[in-house]
Amino acid sequence: MTRNELIAAARAAAANAxxxxxxxxxxxxxxxxxxxxxxxxxxxxxxxxxxxxAETVALAKANSEGRLRDVVEVAVIxxxxxxxxxxxTSPVSPCGRCRQVLNEAAQLGGRDLIVHCAAAEGxxxxxxxxxxxxxxxxxxxxxxxx
Length: 146
Hints:
The protein is α+β, with helices and mostly antiparallel strands and 146 residues long. The protein has four helices and six strands.
């Protein structure tokens, strides 16, 4: 799977975002070691603290299928919700909480994830290693697991 195909999967997931409060839709796509793609979108709640980020939804789906250790790449896309889709020309990156949750999968899988951050419109993409987005991360290995 190419980077652009993974971003396209994240874009398709973002179309299902439930974001009536922020009006900011986000989609995430996880590439697993065997080529399987798992997607998620943000899911807001009137009690804001109960909202779920797209990356967390996708990781929970992967975990529910016993595949959390298999994540190798992530694509994230987001933007303001408008008629006809999302808008915005700046790449969107995972929030701090999502970086920490992604780190859990990365440490359990023994790899440094590739994270593609894409803009809702245009071709702007920034690609990072998760360790660059979350240096000195705390995770399972710090607790003697993983």
